[in-house]
Specification:
Keywords: Membrane, Transmembrane, Transmembrane helix. With 69 residues, this protein is an all-alpha fold. The protein folds into two domains: 38 residues; 30 residues, no CATH class. Helices cover 75% and strands 0% of the residues. The longest helix has 34 residues.
């Protein structure tokens, strides 16, 4: 068998393997993103009773988000 023929027949498999490696790498990046891309969530300067008052009298969706009620 001539070497050029073997490369020609292996090319689709090499391309498929390269595609699979790229897909696995993309999945790994998407899956691990929350672990290295962090942004503070609780940034309110209020504490204790002031924070509770802000929840009670602020935007209605906020108390649901924070307390699930």
């Amino acid at each position: 068998m001539h070497p050029a023929h073997s490369l020609h027949t292996l090319r689709p498999f090499i391309l498929a393997a390269g595609w699979l490696v790229n897909v696995i790498a993309a999945i790994a990046v998407i899956y691990s993103a929350p672990y290295y891309w962090k942004q503070d969530y609780h940034t309110s300067a209020l504490t204790g009773a002031q924070w509770v008052q802000e929840l009670k009298h602020g935007h209605p969706d906020r108390i649901h988000t924070e307390l699930g009620m």
